[in-house]
Specification:
about 120 residues, alpha+beta, 4-stranded mixed sheet, 5 helices, 4 strands, about 40% helix, DNA-binding
DNA sequence: GATCTGACCACCG
DNA sequence: CCGGTGGCCAGAT
């Protein structure tokens, strides 16, 4: 199980209406500084993937933010999907992280990474 | 193998 | 709040 697959496993485990930051995903993989690599992994996903990539967002202070680069269409799609799950954006295209942050059970994560 | 790039973030100052 | 820096992994050249 390589790094990318672990990222996908974690992302698949995020419930609808909840989100994680790139850095949080990296921490769950025991690579606290690998947030950038998490972004790379999601970038490498095929368009028809069953991985809910839209539930991984960037972080700006205590706010969540869509931070895709060079993919205008995907930015719109991510926002639409999140809004469809009940996450509403403010005028600055952000939303407060606190009510939407997923708090995973460490044992569940360990199990996920172990099995896959 | 060296080098560069990219959906990032924590840590200073 | 803003900017600079270092660190991570994978893919392309």
């Amino acid at each position: 199980m390589n790094f990318n697959e672990q990222v996908y496993e974690i992302t698949r485990a995020i419930p609808p209406g909840k989100v994680l930051n790139y850095g949080t995903v990296a921490r769950l993989l025991s690579n606290p500084r690998a947030s950038r690599a998490v972004g790379y992994a999601l970038n490498a996903l095929p368009s028809g993937s069953d991985v809910p990539w839209h539930r991984v967002v960037g972080k700006a202070g205590s706010y969540g933010r869509i931070s895709l680069r060079g993919r205008g269409d995907s930015v719109a799609e991510q926002r639409i999907r999140l809004e469809a799950e009940g996450i509403l954006f403010d005028e600055e295209g952000q939303f407060p992280l606190k009510p939407y942050l997923w708090q995973p059970d460490p044992a569940e994560i360990a199990s996920l990474l172990d099995q896959g």
